[in-house]
# Entry
Amino acid sequence: MNFNVKLEMDSLNEMLKKRGLEERGRVQKFIDSEVIRLCSPYTPFQTNALIESALSGTEIGSGNIIYNSPYAKYLYYGKLMVSPTTGSSWAKQGERKVLTGTDLKYDGAPKRGSYWFERMKADHLRKLIKDVAEMAGGRT
# Structure
């Protein structure tokens, strides 16, 4: 008994595109937007500038969330950094600050504070994965 079978399939790129999984596609745009949105309640807040810097510094769909402010790293790691010459949190122009063991204190803590991305993932990663899988036509 012989069978003659002809299988026609879209290319890999076409299959990915149909599910929104191509590079910079709708799924990646959703992930980037959701990560920024979900991180916002965890991000240190005084004037909203840090949260706004994620919106202005990130190219939605790139897969890279960029908090584009000079103090973002300082706030993310949550440790006081000081001038090595004066010990002040203010440094002279061009002077590199040094890290101390002193934790920063945040308004709105404990929800707002250091490592906001890691803490957001601990609370929301499963739902984010479920939403992404559903958007791409899959399941978890």
Observations:
- The first strand starts at residue 79 and ends at 82.
- The helical segments are 12-18, 26-39, 49-57, 72-77, 116-135.
